[in-house]
Structures are given as structure tokens and as C-alpha cells.
């Protein structure tokens, strides 16, 4: 097979290299092993041993892949990811991208905005920080029921990097809102194929009309961060997913844990990554067929994360 033919084949870009989507197995489609934000002082995810323990706990329940949505400048610990993946046997996908400006120290965002698209492309094709693994997706963020100038500029850079590399774009929706604005910008103005967009946190705004509109457009819908009662997560999620399955969108639904604080880790008494399989999966299987839930954890993330990667 020629190099050109290999390039055209879709694959998931993990920290250990590109793999076929079906190799992922059971996937936590949105989580964090490492994360440091000025909005979460004292709750940093920065302990390598704790990350290793969390992955092993997830692995013991059958989990075999985790997508870390931590973007540029928020303590990704990219140089640790390959070692953790080898040691635990869990596939890891790293992110490039940029979060909302409020998460960064003053001056951090301004220092990279002018060359943001090139930064994303470099991290997707050459490696994070020049020495780390290659990122496998671009993470950006919207605002509450809208898109500010920062969101528009970062999404424009993400779209540019997507067109040059093929990378999927994962979007933090603030409290689950703004999905249609994001799709208008990325897929309308910037011509990103909807199947290359993952909309995150939709469980935080359980609006069935918006969910169906986003699904009808062709995007992947991520329902992540279970166990957070203040975000209308667990108790509404079965009916929300059942409605989308009944409407014919079962193939576009993803599930994730979104662990963002040290207190939330399972070793510290929190739900952590294991909660997705230990509590959420059996709960969903009471409302949906087990096979449908299985597809949300395996087949769907394999499709959402796969790209026909280009050098740039």
C-alpha cells in the first residue's frame, strides 16, 4: 500500500500512533487526566500516579480508551501520556485547541492568538510542544447561549486546522447551550463537515428540540459529566438519549466522564472515570437496549474520532 493510500484511510490518532477506530474498544469520549485552570484553584489534576490509578480503575471495568479534552496551556502533561498509555494498556487521545479565555492566566491567550491555526496544525502533525505525542482532536469552546469574539477566533483557527489535517473538532458548550450557533459558524461559515464536529455537554441543557436539530445537522452529540446533579445529568439522561435513539440518531451519541477536579477522582472518594461504566452504563441499559449503549461506548466514538489524516 502506498503512502498516499495509507493517508486516505481513516484512523484515530492516539498518543502512541494512529490506530483503526475499532481498536479503541470501550471509550470514555470526554475526560481529563491532567487539567489546571485558574477557575479551579487547589483542584488541579497534576499527579501522574493518580492519573495512572484512575486509568487502571477504568480498565478493570472494561474501559480501553480515554479522550483527554485538555487543550493548550491548561496543564495537559502531554509528555506523560504515552507512558501512561503503555503502562495501563488504555488508548489515549490528546487534544490541541484553546478553551475560554477565562481559564488562562493573563497574557497567555494573547501570546498565541495570532498564530493559533499554525499551533493547532503543529500539535496535530508534529507533536505537542515539539517533543510530545501528536494530538488527535481540536478542543474549542463556546459561550453561554452564544459566541463571543474569542470563541469565533478560536473556532476559525480550529476550522483552518481541520481543513489542513482532517482532525475532528470537539466543542465545549457552556452549560450545554449554543450548539446551533456553533454549527452555523463551523459548518456554515467555515465549511467543516458536521460529522467532524463533536458537541460536548449537551446533557447540561436537556432541550430535546435543540438536540434533534444538532443531530439532524449531522454532528456527534456528547453527553458527558455524569454524577453532577446540579447539571441535570443522570436523572434526565435516559429519557434524553431514548428520545434521540427513537428519532433515529443512535449512531451519533457519545458518552464521557469529564473529570475536572482532584476531588472528583475515584481514589479521593469521587465518581471519577469508573463511574461511566460502574453506574451510568447499567442505568442506561434499563432504559435502552444494552446493544445501543454498547454502540455509544464503542462504535460511535470510533467513528467520531477517526479522520483521514493529512500532513498539513
TrEMBL record:
It comes from Streptomyces lonegramiae. Keywords: Hydrolase, Metal-binding. This is Phosphotriesterase. Belongs to the metallo-dependent hydrolases superfamily. Phosphotriesterase family. PANTHER family: PHOSPHOTRIESTERASE-RELATED, PHOSPHOTRIESTERASE-RELATED PROTEIN. The lineage of its organism: Bacteria, Bacillati, Actinomycetota, Actinomycetes, Kitasatosporales. Pfam families: PTE. The modification N6-carboxylysine is found at residue 139.
